[in-house]
Write a sequence for this structure.
């Protein structure tokens, strides 16, 4: 987690937030799931105070080629444990659907392993950006405690 060292006013934080959004959108290493930029008319002070609105943006890091290769091998292994090569070469509608479901599941899992997200924080009417980088490949599982 990284937090801005200096706080900003509402106008400046909207500019900083939108600049960060554009930087991630223009970086081919990341994929957004939506448009997170804020309009000039957005009253973040009111929305955060009265409506408890949370301003955040999430970007998924493109997998490394080694991650993609491992993904393909794992998917093939899983499917070959259930079906023969002949069945996979000429799949029934049911097998086709299972292949699509497995591919979607593996893809979502692969993309969700490395996310970057940031949000606007507020303290005493001063605003700051809080940024998080989640790398599930480095997730603590208790073995190094």
């Amino acid at each position: 987690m990284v937090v801005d060292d200096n706080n900003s006013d509402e106008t400046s934080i909207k500019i900083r937030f939108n600049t960060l959004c554009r930087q991630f959108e223009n970086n081919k290493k990341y994929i957004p799931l939506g448009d997170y930029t804020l309009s000039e008319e957005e009253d973040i002070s009111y929305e955060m105070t009265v409506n408890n609105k949370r301003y955040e943006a999430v970007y998924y890091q493109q997998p490394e080629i080694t991650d993609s290769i491992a993904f393909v091998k794992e998917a093939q292994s899983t499917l070959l444990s259930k079906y023969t090569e002949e069945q996979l070469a000429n799949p029934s509608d049911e097998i086709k659907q299972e292949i699509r479901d497995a591919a979607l599941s593996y893809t979502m899992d692969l993309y969700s392993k490395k996310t970057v997200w940031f949000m606007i924080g507020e303290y005493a009417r001063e605003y700051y950006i809080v940024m998080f980088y989640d790398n599930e490949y480095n997730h603590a599982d208790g073995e190094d405690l």
User: Anything to note?
Assistant: The beta strands are 2-3, 30-32, 56-61, 114-123, 126-135. The longest strand covers residues 114-123. The chain has five helices and five strands.
